[in-house]
Amino acid sequence: MRKWQIFLLEDDPGLRDLLVDHLNASGHQVQSCRTLTEAYSLLEQWTPDLVLLDLNLPDGDGLDLIPTIQSLGNLPVLIITARGSVPDRVQGLNQGADDYLIKPFAMDEFDARIKALLRRVHPQEQVMILAGTTLDINKCTLLTEQGNTLLTDHELRIMEYLMQNASRVVSREVLEQYVYGWYIPASNSIEVRVSVLRKKLRQIGSQLNIRALRKAGYALFVEE
Questions:
Q1: N or C: which end of the chain has fewer CB within 10 A?
Q2: Which residues contact 200 (CB under 8 A, 6 or more apart)?
Q3: Cα–chain-centroid distance for residue 15?
Q4: 175 and 104 part of one domain
Q5: How does pLDDT run across 27-48, given as a tens digit for each residue?
Q6: CA 54 to chain centre
């Protein structure tokens, strides 16, 4: 797995240390600071793959940093803030942020949003294989020796995330964030798409099955 370079601007020392430790444990390399002044200085010397941006800082508004970030290239920006009103969210997205996460948040949701942003900007693994079933990301196709089937973009994202987390339970909320990002669709959208995916897996003779676990989420298992 590639080690992503992540920049975290967060003035709360407890949360900053928690996120740095979590990201390091996930295999990423993290640089962090607490003020805009420190951030400007750091970004003059280093270009990350992803920026995690707090807004309420001791010396200004984190949104003021976005033009500098944009000057460095196509870097995804995830705002992490307690400012959760609709006008605040709209302002952040309009000024160039790619996604918006309101404090407090679950770490699973945090991870899902980071993966989704990095996937959009830095496409990596184009083929995934599990128990004789191949997911071709470029072609939006599932394949086995018995056949193949095309996937919609949303079905592709669901399958990709479940294969990345095979045999692990993924909550519906985390899956929604990975698949849809900022936009959350109708309440049964994930259920409908998972049902279609199950049928497609059966049609091509795949050993993979998506199980719905009541009040827990979904998990991808290999059927014996």
A1: C
A2: 142, 149, 151, 155
A3: 19
A4: no
A5: 899 999 999 999 999 999 989 9
A6: 18
Mean pLDDT of 79-92: 91
pLDDT band at 4; cut points 50, 70, 90? confident
Q: Are 64 and 169 contained in the same domain?
A: no
| Residue 198 and residue 105 share a domain | no
Domain boundary among 122, 149, 172: 122
What predicted TM-score, i.e. pTM, was given to this entire model?
0.64
